[in-house]
Amino acid sequence: MFKPSLLCPFAICGRLIILLALWAIFLVGANDLRRAADGEQSLYEDIKRLAVYSLVFKREP
Known about the structure:
The protein is mostly helical. It is about 80% helix and about 0% strand. It has one domain. It is elongated, with a radius of gyration of 20 Å.
């Protein structure tokens, strides 16, 4: 028969992880909007720059 004592902690932990991930995404987005409003570079620009640098440094001379 179904034993909730074994499965419930995994379900609660999984939901907690999903909730924390959504909260982190919200905080990153809010910080990015604040930086854009202040005239600073946004996270998107930083990620784009890192991608370009990684492509440039990956090339063989």
